[in-house]
Amino acid sequence: MSSIDLIQPKRLSTDTRISGNASGVMIPFFKFVLWSLPICYNRNTMPARDTYHQIVKNALVKDGWTITHDPLRIRLARRKNLFVDLGAERILAAERGTEKIAVEVKSFISPSDMKDLEEATGQFVLYERLLKRYYPDRVLFLAVTEDTKKRVFEEEAGQTLIEDGIIRLVTFEPVKEAIEQWIQ
Question: N or C, where is the chain less crowded by C-beta within 10 Å?
Answer without folding.
Answer: N
